[in-house]
Amino acid sequence: DAGITQSPRHKVTETGTPVTLRCHQTENHRYMYWYRQDPGHGLRLIHYSYGVKDTDKGEVSDGYSVSRSKTEDFLLTLESATSSQTSVYFCAISESAGTDTQYFGPGTRLTVL
Amino acid sequence: GNSVTQMEGPVTLSEEAFLTINCTYTATGYPSLFWYVQYPGEGLQLLLKATKADDKGSNKGFEATYRKETTSFHLEKGSVQVSDSAVYFCALSDAGKSTFGDGTTLTVKP
């Protein structure tokens, strides 16, 4: 199994509070991704990174920011959490773009009350 | 933009039945195609993939063929087992970004 961990695995927070989710990899892969999974929507890309300090937006990036200061860590921040951001968040990595398989972390279940 | 449409679920089958989950796609370029599987409480994991037209991906008895003429990548298995119960996602990767279908839940009963 690819070495990907996510922390925390579960979090309950209140509307308006900041939240940071962490993704850590031990595979030295260049690409890292954050997705959210919601019933009826499959997986939707929030942000992705193609190298240290190199990030770009996905299809549902509003209300989220990311940072990647080291190859192994990719942080997702909700500056002011809203109930619509209640979801399961998955981190993924890939060695290169295009034809490469993505390897997924175990997910973080976030509940915003 | 790119999109993936897969067969709506849930799908319930008896053990040893034949499985087909349909997947069609729309892409502007020449994508790679994937099937991922998700077991309860876990992240997605690759089941099989195909990187060009007419390629067949296969793994654990599952197969899918990249059909450019019909823009399809249907998943098949000849004889399902209870352990195949999971959610299956069709996906494409094009120009560095992936697009996923909504997932199809498969339940196999003994």
Description:
The complex is a heterodimer of chains A (113) and B (110). With 113 residues, chain A is mainly β. Chain A contains no helices and eleven strands. In chain A, strands 2, 4, 5, 6, 9, 10 and 11 form a seven-stranded mixed sheet that branches. In chain A, strands 1-3-8-7 form a four-stranded antiparallel sheet, with no helix packed on it. In chain A, β4 and β5 form a beta hairpin. Chain A is globular and about 35 Å long. The termini of chain A are far apart. In chain A, 37% of the residues are buried. Chain B has strands spanning 3-6, 11-14, 19-21, 23-26, 32-38, 44-50, 56-59, 62-65, 75-77, 86-94, 97-100, 104-109. In chain B, a hairpin with a 5-residue loop joins β5 (32-38) and β6. Chain B contains no helices and twelve strands. In chain B, strands 2, 5, 6, 10, 11 and 12 form a six-stranded mixed sheet that branches. Chain B has a four-stranded antiparallel sheet with strand order 3-9-8-7, with no helix packed on it. With 110 residues, chain B is mostly beta strands. The radius of gyration of chain B is 13 Å and the shape is globular. The chains are: A mainly beta (113), B mainly beta (110). Chains A and B meet through β4, β5 and β10 of A and β5, β6, β10 and β11 of B.
Task: Reconstruct the topology from this structure.
The complex is a heterodimer of chains A (113) and B (110).
Chain A (H helix, E strand, L loop, with lengths): L3 E4 L2 E4 L5 E7 L5 E8 L3 E10 L2 E4 L6 E7 L2 E6 L8 E8 L8 E2 L3 E5 L1
Parallel strand pairs in A: 2-11
Antiparallel strand pairs in A: 1-3, 3-8, 4-5, 4-9, 5-6, 7-8, 9-10, 9-11
Chain B lengths: L2 E4 L4 E4 L4 E3 L1 E4 L5 E7 L5 E7 L5 E4 L2 E4 L9 E3 L8 E9 L2 E4 L3 E6 L1
Parallel strand pairs in B: 2-12
Antiparallel strand pairs in B: 1-4, 3-9, 5-6, 5-10, 7-8, 8-9, 10-11, 10-12
